[in-house]
Amino acid sequence: MNEKSPSLQLDGRIHLWPQAVAAETGIKASSCYQCLRCTNSCPVSTFMDIKPHQVVRFVQLGQREKLLECSSVWVCLSCEMCSTYCPNEINVAGLMNFVKNSVVAGHKRPAEMEIALFHEIFLEVLHKYGRMNDLQLMQRFKLKTLLTGHLPSYSEFKQEMSLARELFERGRLKLLPERSRAVKEIRAILEQRRGKVIST
Amino acid sequence: MIQMAYYPGCALQSMSWDYRESIKQVAAALGLQLVEVEEWTCCGATAAHSLDERMSVMLPARNIAGAEALGLDMAVACPMCFKRLALSRKMLQEKRVDDPWLLKLDRNIFDLARFLASEKMLEKIRDQVRRPLAALQVVCYYGCQVVRPPKITGYTDYENPRHLDLLAAAAGATAIDWSYKATCCGASMGIPKKTIGLTLVAKLLSAAHAAGAQAIVVCCPLCHSNLDLLQPELRAQNSWDWELPILYYTELLGIAFRLRSIDAGLASHLVDPRPFIEGWTVSSDE
Ligand code: SF4
Ligand code: SF4
Q: Domains in chain B, ordered, with CATH?
């Protein structure tokens, strides 16, 4: 995507970003008539600053900066309710995802740092082993969030420790991570990705 | 003997080994041979597409190549992996991404639960039931990944999926209708944004309880963890005087088949289903 593409200008100039989004994703935000079915079907719309139908509207209006800074795209669960029920078959979840991808590709700071870091650490574990391991993921995530200044409250900490103990006692935590011998192929794919989550 | 390529997915190799064990035991009882895709790798789950969609299509493609090398259709245990693999296959078919593996894409990808609910497998399942769970009422919870978007999964019954209900019925149990079959449980936010998970899971559990369910049957390791592991916290928060065992469909079948070998898996749940099992069978059938 072109970094310099214009966003909404109220001066009668042509707005290129919406067309660029349609060209890159194949998703036609322009067919949206703001019926709100996407937002009404979304299980987490109450947690969102910009609701799904507004995300679509902002794409139509070329409000790129607003979208890159919003937290809702990170909160999105990719549950595909919105895309499934849109009467105009607009892939709303795909737009949400496109915005996330754009934040990362443009090296911008994600509005929901912990969620973005969680994804980043997931890929870090994948890069190392080729497979996921719950314990590795949790440990690395906790460490990273501590280092970036997130201190859990005492009650949060207590809750987490008691769950961890329970899981351990019930044999749910696998201490030795599994490795796939095909990890090299995975690394090649991971290393071709665009951008990285910026955490500072 | 039916043979299929098998993609278990990472969750089953670590925290959700109870699901893996129950699949293994039930498949053996049914004469279904699951051949693991050699050196399979992670599908990329939510993380890969959130950060770079293109990468998320390439990651599963490697595993499709592995199944093709076996020359078999592939059964996928985890709905998240199923969706990522199915999506990757579709993108490759439409030539939207490069294909360094030169895939033929002539083999199918099945969601394991749906495969088991096919008529020929249901017949085998009914033959294996040693202990019909005739006194058990369940709700079946499909989650969000395995049914949507219908364009990818190919399911026409995405509003009211039935395959887990059919499996529960084959085990002798009654599957109650409820409105939350395919509502998302928020598991992907479970660690970085726990409040979302807690809110969605509280809604699901109370709806299941209100519907009169004694257990929830699931097909997704992420849903299972979310619904099972959050229960102690939610029970304390909401002063619930009830708890709901969360069972994989394969565990439900294993119980009805009287497979002792799945007991260790059942014991690893936070809400241990074992004390309830006696009450789920009708004594005259014993
Ligand atoms: S459901 Fe579709 S048409 Fe309706 S507001 Fe959402 S995106 Fe627009
Ligand atoms: S995919 Fe995202 S935006 Fe769409 S309904 Fe699900 S959580 Fe809401």
A: 2-114 (1.20.1050.140), 131-280 (3.40.50.11810)
In this structure, what CATH number is given to the domain that contains residue A11?
Answer: 1.10.1060.10
Q: Which of B40, B51, B98 to mutate to test the interface with A (most CBs of A within 10 A)?
A: B51
Q: 3-class DSSP state for residue A10? A: coil
CA distance A80 to B221: 19
Q: pLDDT by residue (tens digit) across B44-89? A: 999 999 999 999 999 999 999 999 999 999 999 999 999 999 999 9
Give chain A's domain count: 2
Q: In this complex, which of A104, A114, A173 lies closest to B193 when CB atoms are compared?
A: A114
Tell me, what's the ipTM?
Answer: 0.91
Structure tokens at A132: 């996921």
Q: Which of residues 89-148 of B touch A (CB under 8 A)?
A: 144-145, 148
Final residue of a structural domain among A83, A105, A127: A105
* pLDDT class of B286 with cuts at 50, 70, 90: very low
CA-based nearest residue in chain B for residue A159? B233
The residues that bridge with B216 in the sheet, in sequence order, are B139, B246
**pLDDT 10s digits, A18-38:** 888 999 999 999 999 999 999
Average predicted confidence (pLDDT) for chain A = 88
